[in-house]
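Example 3.2
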Amino acid sequence: MSSMSSVAGLSKYITTLPKTKFSIIGMLVLSFLLGSIIYLIDLIPNTGIIEDFFAGGLFGIAVFGFTSIMSGALNQQVISVLHGINLKIKHSMFLSALSMTILGIVVILGCVISQIFKVDIFLNSMLFGCVLIYGFNTLVFWTTSKVRFSIAAITGLIQPALILSMYTLITFLFIDTSFLGPEILQITIKAIVAAVIFVMAIYTFITVIASPFNKNLGIGALDLLSLFIAHMNEGSNSLEGLFENMSEAIETIVTFISFKTENGIKALFISPSVHPGPLGDLGGSNMPTILANKFDHFTMVAHGPSTHDFNPIAVSEIDKVEASVRRGLEKVEYSPDASKFIRYNSEKANIGVQFFNKGMVILSTFAPEAVDDIEFGVGLTMMAQSRSRCHVKDSIIVDCHNSFSEESGEVLPGNAEVFQLIDVIDTINPDQNKYDIKIGCYEDNMGALNKHDGIGESGIKTMIVEVDNQRTAYVLFDSNNMEIGFRQEIIDAVSDLDIDEIEVMTTDTHTVNTISRGYNPVGIVKRPEIIKFVRLSIQEALLDLEKVEVGTGTEKIKNLNTFGPKNSTELISTISSVVAVSRIIAPVLLITALLIVFVWLFYGGL
């Protein structure tokens, strides 16, 4: 799996939270049970079990439940008023419920220890739990809401302050009227000192791990995280503005095949050396659909040789790819000449080759072996070599992207796969007979399937190319690669149809990567349903066959703003190093701070 896909895999931790009403109901029920357990363990001795259960339940609802519900509402309002992002009411209520649960567990443990060792540490347990949730809330607000640390620290105080205030009031009115004596000042000071110790440890931790982003990339780590979450939750593209600060303008190419009838262009087959990433709807992630929709005729956007280095930093950059294709179409010369589709192989490298007029297409796959993206430089080498050997004007290189496992690696300069591709191109027979050509097209968005099934917005597109009675099916899924082995299963499943050859490709769209893994290849689930769509698309495309003329083109794309080789690698390495360092720093720093707080609250004194 590529490094960028590994990073995208962090999206699995962003889940759909329960609705607000469920969090509120949960807090009321759980707070009642927490209070009952605390009383039963036994906050007030010498009372009956029934009395403890109901009195404790009311105590729990008042001290934990109502205050947590209030804090959920207040937290959201405060963050919203102060121009924070991401914290919707359901998120705020869930956070309050989670914090209340953490506090309840700490207090119950304190009650148990009090009973076992016959010491009264209930209040200290309450303070320790409040300090814990204060730090937790502050951390969440600061890292996800795009607010300053001071705002996060103040907002994080709301829930523990409400809980302690309600506990003080309830205790004074119903349990111990002397509770508001001189000791309350000492308790308050102890709590403040403990909270400062813990929250400063959190501040230090975040500052340390965020510094590499500012130093290496000139972006804020918390801005990156907050805007990433905003994209996952709301579809916001604000993260593209952050990418712009680290973008790099490149020059790349787009190649294409145009098929036309007497009525004009019937179909386009485009292979841009631009990568459809990084994920979700950011940058060029949905490029295969967006680019195809810019043309009024059937358009297939295949995966050209490119890696995450060539991710456009904004959706608007796709306009430059369109403009290059349109410039190229103005220069195309058409003829009815095309060759049959022929396969070649060398070790793991397999290619399907077909000549169209003065150009050729090379469909490259390493199936049944698992391989990820072909790097742009490798693709350029394949183009130059095939043009030279076959004496063609244009060579359309397609990375079929149809055999994937988690261990798949990119095809980079120096890899053995590069030389296998060079060797297999040297076996191409350039002297192919040319015949008239027919094509038939069909597309289906596969509405019954969606991103969860690895299917993007464009679904499936199929083009049948008929040359001298040989029929070849070009089948393209709007997907991010294909589960290893599924390609062959599809080929076997359509062997009874009226076609002679078939190649199955994916666009490598990264819109499907917001789901759970950071990668989501087609074929993990619902294989029988997907195969039905393939069979249907081939049958319908066969019915659409008609004579066409064909032409090919190659056009440069200039000043395309992308991640760039330097920044893409820097981003991945920075994130990877931060994650590695955090695994060491976080436990040491935060556990040390918690131990200091524990000692201060339970053994310290004023």
